[in-house]
Amino acid sequence: MRRIRSSISGPVVSIYSKLRLTMVEEKPIESVHHGPAPSVSHVDVSVAGEPAFRDVSASAINLQTARAADEPFMYATFASTRTEELALTGWNEEQKEKFLRMQFEAQRRSYLLHIPNAEYFVIHCGQVAVGRLIIERTPSEIHIVDIALLPQFRRHGIGSILMQAILNEARNACKSVRLFVERFNPALHWYERLGFSVLSIGPIYLEMVWRTASVESIDQDSQLAENIAEQIAEVGVTPDVSD
User: Fold this and answer.
1) Between the N and C ends of the chain, which has fewer C-beta atoms within 10 Å?
2) Could you say which of 3.50.50.60, 3.40.50.790, 3.40.630.30, 3.40.50.720 is the CATH number of the domain covering 11-47+58-235?
C-alpha cells in the first residue's frame, strides 16, 4: 500500500523546482542494487552545531536527489517513523532491527514494482539532512508516496513549507495531489487543514486528495458528460446537436 500552515509565497516555488534536479555521474538510489540496510544504531544523524529550527524559512529548505550513499540516512528516516509502534511490541533491539530491515526492503521493492517512476529526495534544512521525500508525477496529479522527517526536526514548519510548495506546483499545473495516510495517524488532521479530503477508506489507510478549483471543475464536467452519456444509452437516441 502506498502512503508521506500559513500560505507560503514565491520562494517556495523556487525551492520545489529543485525536485527536477538531474543526476550527474551517480545513479539515483532507487535504481541501484543494494545490500542489507545498515543498522539505525550505526547511522549518525546528528550534526555538530545544528541550527535552531524554531524559525525555519522557506529559503533554508532544499532538496537533493537521493543517491546510493544516502541509503543509511533514508533507512534511518524510515526507521524513525516506526519508533512508537515498535515500543509497544516488547521486542529487544535485535528483534526490532530485524523487523525494520525487513520492512524497509519490502517497502523499497514495492515502490520499485508499483511506482517505478517515483523520484527520491533527501530533505535538507541548510546543510543538515532532516528527512526524505518520495513523489510520483503524472500528467494529471502529483502523488506523494512518502514524506518523513527525523523526530528532532518535526514541528518546526519544515513539512508545511514542503507541502505548500507541492500544492503550489499542483495549483499552477491544474493537477490534483494524492496521498495515503494511516487511519489513526495524527498527520491526518494536518492534511485536512491543508485542504485534503478523503477519497477512499481502506482497512488501514485512507486515500486523500487535494484539488484546485480548476481540477474540481474539470471533474464535474467529466461527471456531467458521463451522466449524459448514460442517459443517452438508456434512451437509445442520439441528440441533434447541429445548428
Assistant:
1) C
2) 3.40.630.30
Band (223; pLDDT cuts 50, 70, 90): low
Contacts of 10 (CB under 8 A, 6+ apart): none
Instruction: Mean pLDDT check: name the lowest of 92-96, 172-176, 182-186, 197-201.
Output: 182-186
Instruction: Tell me how far CA of residue 142 lies from CA of 4, 36, 38, in angstroms.
Output: 12, 30, 31
Q: What are phi and psi of 135, to 5 degrees?
A: -135, 160
Q: What is the grid cell recorded at 76? A: 534511518
The CB-based long-range contact list for 44-50 (8 Å cut-off, 24+ gap) reads 45/73, 45/76, 45/129, 45/150, 47/127, 47/128, 50/128
Mean pLDDT for the stretch of residues 89-108: 96
Answer whether residue 231 shows pLDDT above 80.
no
For residues 126 and 103, give the distance between their C-alpha atoms in angstroms, rounded to a whole number. 30
Environment class of 189 (CB within 10 Å of its CB; exposed 0-12, middle 13-18, buried 19+):
exposed
Grouping H, G, I as helix, E, B as strand and the rest as coil, residue 223 is: helix
pLDDT of the residue at 167 = 95
Does the pLDDT of residue 170 top 70, yes or no?
yes
| Phi, psi (rounded to 5 degrees) for 204 | -120, -45
- Region 214-228: mean pLDDT is 54
Place of cell 538510489: 29
